[in-house]
Specification:
The chain is elongated, with a radius of gyration of 30 Å. With about 100 residues, it is mainly alpha-helical. It has 3 helices and no strands. It starts with about 35 loop residues before the first helix and ends with a helix. The longest helix is centred in the last third of the chain and has 25 residues.
Length: about 100
């Protein structure tokens, strides 16, 4: 298949022999096939973005499915206090992350 081979440099004459590759063989080494199995997935599962996303989805579904049970005994005062403390906590977390990196 001539399309899979790299084209020769037309400026380099074909009569002069080219030096062999540095590894000593005339055939190029074929790269190892990529492993798309579970071993390749493990580092992804240990990454911080995956953990944060998993935690965010867990909290979202917890709130979505249990909102009636969680918000039934809540008054406007406790809801306001909770939202205010939560907002200040998220802002503090964002500022902390900005100063760490």
């Amino acid at each position: 298949m001539p399309f899979l081979a790299r084209p020769r440099n037309p400026a380099f004459p074909t009569g002069i022999p080219q030096s062999p590759p540095p590894h000593g063989g005339s055939e190029p080494e074929t790269p190892d096939p990529l492993d798309y199995g579970f071993k390749r997935l493990v580092p992804l599962l240990r990454s911080p973005p995956f953990g944060a996303g998993f935690l965010a989805l867990t909290v979202f579904f917890f709130i979505a499915f249990f909102s009636n049970i969680l918000l039934a005994p809540v008054t406007f005062a406790t809801l306001g206090i909770t939202v205010t403390i939560g907002t200040l906590g998220i802002l503090a977390l964002i500022i902390l992350i900005q100063f760490l990196f």
